[in-house]
Every structure is written in structure tokens, then in C-alpha cells.
Design goal:
Layout: H1 2-14, H2 18-36, H3 41-69, H4 73-109
Length: about 110
């Protein structure tokens, strides 16, 4: 039951979120690049770990957004900064993934 709930949560988190489409697109590009450049196991772990990090941050961001929408206006006014912090977490995760990708793939391309 716990796995079914978790998979339902991933599905709910990804549905209707344009950012999941964008992150998914770049995840596919990263996997394709890792395949084409014949990355070693450590590099694969870095690439897959970064993909997981970004999707995890995005799921937490989506969960906070869903909670926020359920609040009354007075509560929203008090916790509005939470949305910015959650979005910042996605930005940091994405930036980290971009730097790791540049190091892994740049090294292979050069």
C-alpha cells in the first residue's frame, strides 16, 4: 500500500506541472548524452543522482504549492515566503545538476 501511495504521489506531483516536462526533457538529454559519450559507472551515478535530486526538489515544491492553495488568505499572507524558498530549492538543485553535467560531459567532449 505504501508503494501505491508513493507512486500516486509522484503521479499527482507531475500531473499538470510544466516544470516537470522541462526537467524531464533535460533528464532525457542527460541520459542520451551519457549513453553517447559512454560514461563510466561513477559518471552515471552522478548523472542519475542529479536527475533524482532535481525531481525530488520539484516534488517537494509541488507539495508546498498544493498545501498553500488549501490555506485561507490570512494564512497565505503569513507563509508566502515558503513558496519562494521551495522554488529556490528547485533552482539550487537544477543549478547543481547543470554544473555536474558540465563537468561530466565537458570532460568527455574535450
Amino acid at each position: 500500500d505504501k508503494f501505491a501511495e508513493a507512486f500516486r504521489g509522484v503521479r499527482l506531483g507531475a500531473q499538470g506541472q510544466s516544470s516537470f516536462f522541462v526537467h524531464g526533457f533535460f533528464a532525457v538529454l542527460a541520459v542520451a548524452a551519457a549513453l553517447l559519450l559512454e560514461c563510466n559507472p561513477v559518471e552515471w551515478c552522478l548523472v542519475v543522482g542529479c536527475i533524482g535530486l532535481v525531481f525530488t526538489a520539484e516534488l517537494f515544491n509541488t507539495a508546498i504549492e498544493m498545501l498553500f492553495r488549501g490555506l485561507d488568505q490570512a494564512a497565505r499572507d503569513r507563509v508566502y515566503g515558503c513558496l519562494d524558498v521551495a522554488a529556490g530549492a528547485v533552482l539550487v538543485a537544477s543549478g547543481t545538476a547543470a554544473v555536474v553535467g558540465a563537468v561530466v560531459f565537458g570532460r568527455r567532449l574535450l
